[in-house]
Structures are given as C-alpha cells and as structure tokens.
Amino acid sequence: MPAQVSAWHFQAFQRSAAGPAQALPVLKRMEWTTRRGLGPGAEILGRDLRQRSVLELGCGPGHNAAHLAARHGAIVTGVDLVGLQVRPARSHYGRLDRVTFVAGHAVTFLQATGEQYDAIYSVFGAIGLVAPELLLPAIAEHLRAGRILAFSVPHPARGGRRPSSDDRPRWDFVTLPDGSRLPIARWEFDANRWDAHLACAGLRATSAMELRGSRHDRWPTTLLITARKT
Questions:
Q1: Distance between CA atoms of 16 and 22, rounded to whole angstroms?
Q2: What is the pTM of this model?
Q3: For residue 28, is it within any domain?
Q4: Is 82 exposed, middle or buried (0-12, 13-18, 19+ CB in 10 A)?
Q5: How much is the pLDDT for 215?
C-alpha cells in the first residue's frame, strides 16, 4: 500500500504545484475514459438520479461527482485516497449544494459509513487498485438491492497486453505531470474474471463495454463494467 499512496500523492503534489485550484464550470456530460465524449454518460447509473444517493470511489478533481449533482440532482459523495486530490475538488466544486468530497481509503470509508447508496461508481479509481476480494464485498454491503455499480478500468489488453491469468495484481506505472513514472499494483482482469469476483460479492454483472480512443486504435483502451446488487 505505501507505494500506491506515494504514487498518487506525488501526482497530486505536482499538479497542485502548478498553482491554486479555481472554481470550474460543471462538465456537460459524465466521462468514463480520459477522452471526452467517448462511450456512454451518466445514463448507465440509472434513468432518474434526482435525490438519489451516489458514491464515487476515487473522485480525483471531482468533475464527474459535480456533474451528477448539478445536472442530474443526485446527492453525491466523492472519496479519494489522497487529501491533495480532495482539496482541489473542493475548490473546483465546493460551491455546489449536493456534493461532498472526503479524503480516505475506499474500504475504510465503506466500513465506517452507515449509508446505503442508489449507485456506486469508479472511473479509473479504487476498483482495480484495491484488492477486489476486499473492496467488492464492501461495496455490495452499501449498495441498495437492485441498484447499480459501474466502473471503468484500463483495458487489460491495451497496447497488446494480456489479462491477468490469476487473481494476483501486476505492476503498472502512473505517469506524473513531469513525465516521470512511479510503480503501482493493479488488478488487470478480463470481463469474465471481473464477473466471477462480482458474483462472489453478491453482484450480478450486466454489461461489459470495450472502448477505444478512436476507431483506428488496434487495441481497446478502457473496460467499462456495470453490475447490480442481487
């Protein structure tokens, strides 16, 4: 875990060194990849999110959480491991009434909260970076029956890679703003292996979408999975 914390801490530190975070306009759509306009939007979390309780695990600068609160009327909590990420999220969107940003580990937060959520999601966030046998059951415990979990992760076949053949994480790298890279552990499963882990946690996978950065890309870049609490 220390290597994970250090990588994201240094990434956030370098971003914060560029200058103080300012208030930002709310994005027009929810994004599941690093490229805007690619794939679905907030509709996969449910048709009507007004006054629904929504949790984001790994909220980063808060763009998606703010979109759901401001444009869909959801009551959103964004959790991020690194306080240096939460600080700019509050600066960007703290003026919004229905969104709260919290610093903490995803599993620790879920173990401590008594809240039940109508939707939980992660966009290149905690899912895939925390042991699934710990995180997915904690998510299921706090997701209302019949409600949706959605998450996007780097596609395990990106760049010609192969998915993990077992349940162990593999080493990956996070690129910092200055171009340097730090190692992180990532669980890189294909859709079938994610299905199995979701089922063990009491969640039923409902879709798996492979997204490419452009139609000319040889390999998919993002795997977007949805599941329901059974």
A1: 11
A2: 0.94
A3: no
A4: buried
A5: 78
